[in-house]
Amino acid sequence: MHFLNMFFFDIYPYIAGSVFLIGSWLRYDYGQYTWRAASSQMLDRKGMNLASNLFHIGILGIFAGHFLGMLTPHWMYEAFLPVDVKQKMAMIAGGACGVLTLVGGILLLKRRLFSPRVRATTTGADILILSLLVIQCALGLLTIPFSAQHMDGSEMMKLVGWAQSVVTFHGGASAHLDRSLIPVAAPQSRRGFGAG
């Protein structure tokens, strides 16, 4: 289990970041004019403004919240913002932005799937990406009840320390996570049935 923790929390973030940066660079160099989303706004405007605004406002709020919440050093706000209040703010504001994103994403996906004119120009990649974003947003919202189990902010600060260590290239970032985040199966008994 130590290897899995080290892989997922020390090594994998750099693999994912490298794939993102190198892939974006290569895509820009070799397919610059294909790097766009096909607009469907002219095909059917019904519900487009509401869905698009909900989705984009929510996703910008989520991005800004994660960026500021995870990467702002603790000393910059500790004098006026206690950790438990920061966690409550993150849960409330993040939850609100997550709900905006989820509702907007579902409305956009519904439009892509059920509007005949939009569906005619929609690619499988459009549906896949929008579906993945909706699923990822739903999974993020499902973490809120788990965050509510430790309202003192201690678990959040462990994740903040881990994220800051990863972004600033400090080795051993998983040391901020004092226990395994990967569940370990309980050892199986070697006794058979009826053994007392």
UniProtKB/TrEMBL annotation:
It is an enzyme of class 1 (oxidoreductase). Dimer of heterotrimers each composed of an alpha, a beta and a gamma chain. Alpha and beta are catalytic chains; gamma chains are involved in binding the enzyme complex to the cytoplasmic membrane. It is a multi-pass membrane protein. Residues 5-174 form the NarG-like domain. The keyword Plastid does not apply. This is nitrate reductase (quinone). It is found in: Cell membrane. It comes from Salmonella enterica subsp. enterica serovar Wilhelmsburg.
